[in-house]
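Hi team,

Filling in the usual template for the complex we talked about on Friday. All components are listed, including any nucleic acid strands or ligand strings, so the model treats them as one assembly.

SUBMITTER: L.P.
PURPOSE: interface mapping
COMPONENTS: two
RESIDUES: 348
SEQUENCES:
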Amino acid sequence: MTHIPIFVIAAAMVVGAGGATTFSAAGADDESSPIFGIKIPPGYRDWRLISVAHEEGMLNDLRAILGNDVAIAAYRERKLPFPDGAIIARLAWSYDPLEESSKAFGHPQSFVAGLPKNGVQFMVKDSKKYASTGGWGFAQFDDGKPAGEAVQNACFACHQVAKSRDFVFTRYAP
Amino acid sequence: MTHIPIFVIAAAMVVGAGGATTFSAAGADDESSPIFGIKIPPGYRDWRLISVAHEEGMLNDLRAILGNDVAIAAYRERKLPFPDGAIIARLAWSYDPLEESSKAFGHPQSFVAGLPKNGVQFMVKDSKKYASTGGWGFAQFDDGKPAGEAVQNACFACHQVAKSRDFVFTRYAP
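RESULT (copied from the run log):
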């Protein structure tokens, strides 16, 4: 019988049980976004957490920012600019008062994520392919479908404000 | 030469590069909490996202709820009660206006996670060990150290409101 080191078998079991490559909560949408030609990365809902945020006003959502392994490693090693292959995902949901909490406190106290809202956005680092936009490609998908050109074009203009952090707004939440 | 299937080698590389078992952003704190005897689970900062929330009032934080593989699988399969081995983690950070955003909008618009706040909390499912509290052990750690008995004792009383969801407030964010 061939002997395989225990740690290799254990590692394979870990990945088989819950690895990002084998379990995707997102659909298998396969349509590329305009301008930057980005597809929804498979398994992104399984990526690790970078940080969380709340947007007021028109957006009025709760959001989570997740990163693939390259992005998470860069954040933790405080590596700027982000290396090629880094992908940052922004998910968002409606901003809903939690019913049980409102009842207990007599007023809204806890706000939780409801249904998906404001699409899902990605920043994809490829310093050659996206050289004219700081090395980042930007994409937004609404209900799994890429948004139109006007939406995709708006991303970089706004992200230039964060140029000193390689155009990324989100800081890692320790 | 011994041949090891490619998928096993690939799996080992994936885990080596970013696996939850090999990279822990949390400290190696090893002190058990009072009452329930819970230690900080290694690598919990790498767990997958269940949902996000904002607490107003005294708490005034942004929070993320993460789950280990058992908890995430139970959520996605809508399995209630949660099986033994499920662990849910609640992280929280200060609720800070994002400076760049406030400047651009002329008023606070984006609120982001700042420094850790209000401790880290865990719910650990063990239907035998914690039979008297719905099968859940509860623990809070402040700066890596278990909080006192009064804090730990307060958890279950409040979570009884969510008895129909196996005492868990947080719903999975799709």
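MY TAKE: Chain A touches chain B through 61 residues (CB under 8 Å). The two ends of chain A are 46 Å apart (CA to CA).

Thanks, L.
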